[in-house]
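Entry 14. Two folds queued back to back today. First construct below, sequence then structure tokens.
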Amino acid sequence: MSEFSVFGKPLPRIDAWPKTTGEVKYLDDIKMPGMLCGKILRSPHAHARIASIDTTEAERLSGVRAVITAKDTPGIKFSFIQALADKLPLCKDKVRYVGE
């Protein structure tokens, strides 16, 4: 049996220096011509019914190209988590927890 083992031993972080000096590019560092940015408004309420969503104030903001709600994406289902793949990406009638 081999004597080689990494358990209980410090391992050198070969990526530490570029990360601490700012050499590494993160996703937020990438800018492309015509690129748009998105913002998500999450619910400040838990177990709440959505009576209506007024988007007029957001639509008036400078630089806003679109404000999207669940009404704009009927039937589109998506999730990065396979177990939630049949869930709608935007809340339509209710939210279950703060931050949904």
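Second construct, same run, same settings:
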Amino acid sequence: MRRVLLGVLTLLASAAWSDDITLPDYERVVLENGTVLLLSEKHEVPLIGLRAEVRGGSVADPVGKAGVAELLASVMQKGAGGRDAAAFASATANVGGRLTVSADVDSISVAAEFLSRDAELMIELVSDVLQEPTLAADELEKEQARAIGLIKAAKDGDPNALMANYAYAFIFGDHPYGRPTSGSEMSLADVSRDDLLTYYSENFGGDRLIISVVGDFDTAAMKARLTAEFGSWEPAAGALEEVPAPPKATGGRVLLIDKPGATQSYFWFGNVGVALDYPRRAELNLANTVFGARFTSMLVTELRVNAGLTYRARSVVDQRTQPGPVTVRSFTETSTTVEAIDLAISVLRRLQDKGLDDDMMVSARNYIMGQFPPRLETASSLARMLAFLELNGLDRSYIDEYGSELQAAAAESVALAISEVYPQPDDLVFVIIGDAATIRDEVAKYGEVTEMSITEPSFRVPPAD
């Protein structure tokens, strides 16, 4: 769910901009076992979208076994409630339905969409996958091999796809946010079926469950059906992981991942930013839109259009229940590694020194408004959003009031958000994937360099011999 964050706020801003566009009415019900139901009728089409969130996610992965939550999510949909993997998939496909399970930082999610006439089957399958997953050993082996294969393929062909794994491990260290949700070659290979069973026992139960349902149904009947199905689910055996706020890094430092012979360097730099409850979210969204969240951003204009150093450059503000990173990332030819990084840093300095002028403010607002397709009009997208709000302790005003906040934002308050969120150049953490022999000496100017090989089976720097 964390990936909603600032990108979703961009969408929400446009939805909320019109005075008459807000979240639809919905009913919130807390069952005796702690399960939260969120129900909203939407009868335009005969569809029902369901989103279930089980609090936990990769922050609850055992130390040294990153990827357990994601493997569990993958295996959960490979057989449940007496159906093997093929039968479970057929039960969904035969009625044209959709059911997927995924893991994120702070939850494991089930997303389902079925015709309203198949609501009973949908609830049955969701209940089975949540309460009676088979977790077959042979399916675990298949998912382990698949996940490890994807990591190896990325290292060979598209190491940029793994940048966040290296970067988060480096910037967050032993903090739970430093564990890659996808796991690593090393950690995935070490996961057993017992690890899945233990994680499931400790983290799955009625007290962890949020179920959001939007679509063509009767609220009273749906409430009764979900209560019957989930109301007696026992609580999880373990305590919910308490995630502390990660500290900001001070002083520059560099992680250099050596890919010998690489013709390109991929770079990422940033620091710890702000959490979801940051009060100047509209101002931050405006700033990041101009800085690096659109194709005509400052970063793209300087690095691609003016300098011709890259095809892509972007900035990301990753907000979670605790502060995530605020980052810049791009790639360039090996010979222009430092030139591109220096130019990106200079754009960051310009943002911090000059802020946004009136034209930029208008342009950013128009962009945000224009980017909103009917993303909150479908049953599934609304179910996801309601679950996101509940999972993160946010009420409907988080969406309903966002448009007015965006409209009221002034250049001065945007400048304040920039100063509060974006790191100073002297406190940047850098992660670079490239040919170390060629760029090692040049990148040392950014801070103390720590080096590792891309062939290492972990995303963490190996311990010294």
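Quick look at the second one. The chain has two domains: 5-230, 253-373+396-453. Confidence is low (pLDDT under 50) at residues 2-7, 10-20.
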